[in-house]
Design brief:
Helix content: 40-55%
Structural class: alpha/beta
Order of helices and strands: EEEEHEHHEHHHEEEEEHEHHHH
Distance between the termini: 37 Å
Radius of gyration: 19 Å
Length: 313
């Protein structure tokens, strides 16, 4: 998959994914004194070689990279960041909330703690044992990010295409961010906005991930004309319509979960009722944590939802 020149100073680079979707997009953006890389692909040697070849195709030396900006810390977005930072000297930047999430994931016993959460939700111990193995395998792909600098909502980076603004869009992860080029109407949306895919909104203790996702949709709804440059799939137009459809789908899913909970079903039983098929261990984890996130959601008064744009850190 060759790099695509979207316009002078902006490249889309599809990188292979050995697991999950077929590919992940990373983006190269010319900055005032070099280049910015948005996301970095999975940390496999073959994927790093693809990224190095794409840089060479674009005529860019690693030493020209100034910033590696991460939409979030999931390994298909962060995996190559440490190696590339060592090679180039570029600074890695990520939202503080995702640094906290990464610390939790890299702490010994994280997969077991996921298992305890699923057992408390009523999951079968045999299935939980499978999930713990799969989760440990997944968590091993998350790279440490020592020395990473924090991104904050409202931060701005000068580029050849105008100011690049940071928009905090939690939900898929607590520290997920999008990057917006208002001068070009372009939104680098990470995994928050994906074509034809409803983002996974899971459970993270201490966060109202589902509620924060709804508020993030409000935040993005203010950019209805933006063209979306997603992490997976091809660029597309119609962000405002996407936000409206996704909010409606989110509320439909919420109502379904709440109606099943009203029948005195526990979260695991709700998963069995909604997904009436065998799920792989990792898919079972995603399904159950999405149900837990919806059950943890608290309705916020309209006044708080309006104030929520400033409430989201």
């Amino acid at each position: 998959m060759p790099p695509e020149l979207i316009e002078p100073g902006l490249w889309r680079i599809p990188l292979s994914m050995p697991v999950g979707p077929a590919s992940v997009n990373v983006y190269l953006l010319r900055s005032a004194d070099g280049w910015i890389l948005i996301d970095a692909g999975m940390g496999f040697p073959a994927v790093f070689a693809e990224l190095a070849a794409a840089l060479a195709h674009a005529g860019i030396e690693p030493a020209q990279l100034r910033h590696i900006l991460l939409t979030h810390v999931h390994p298909d977005h962060s995996g190559n960041a440490p190696q590339l930072a060592r090679l180039s000297g570029a600074a890695i930047r990520v939202h503080r909330a995702d640094v906290d999430l990464l610390d939790w994931i890299l702490r010994p016993g994280a997969a077991g703690r996921i298992g305890e959460t699923l057992l408390a939700a009523g999951a079968d111990p045999g299935r939980v044992a499978e999930v713990v193995v799969a989760a440990a395998r997944l968590f091993a792909l998350f790279p440490p990010l020592p020395g990473a600098l924090f991104l904050n909502h409202g931060d701005s980076f000068p580029t050849a295409l105008g100011a690049l603004e940071v928009i905090h869009t939690p939900g898929h992860s607590p520290g997920h961010v999008c990057f917006y080029l208002p001068a070009r109407g372009l939104l680098f949306s990470g995994d928050t906005v994906l074509p034809d895919i409803f983002p996974h909104i899971g459970f993270v203790d201490g966060h109202d991930c589902f509620g924060d996702f709804l508020l993030a949709l409000d935040r993005l709804q203010a950019l209805p004309g933006a063209r979306v440059l997603p992490a997976h799939g091809l660029p597309f137009a119609g962000l405002g319509a996407w936000c409206l459809r996704t909010r409606a789908e989110a509320l439909r899913r919420l109502e379904r979960v709440r109606s099943l909970a009203a029948e005195a079903l526990n979260p695991a039983q709700i998963v069995d009722r909604i997904w009436q098929r065998d799920l792989r261990a990792i898919d079972y984890q995603l399904a159950l944590t999405s149900v837990l996130a919806q059950l943890a959601y608290r309705d916020r008064p309209v006044t708080e939802q309006i104030a929520g744009h400033s409430r989201l850190p």
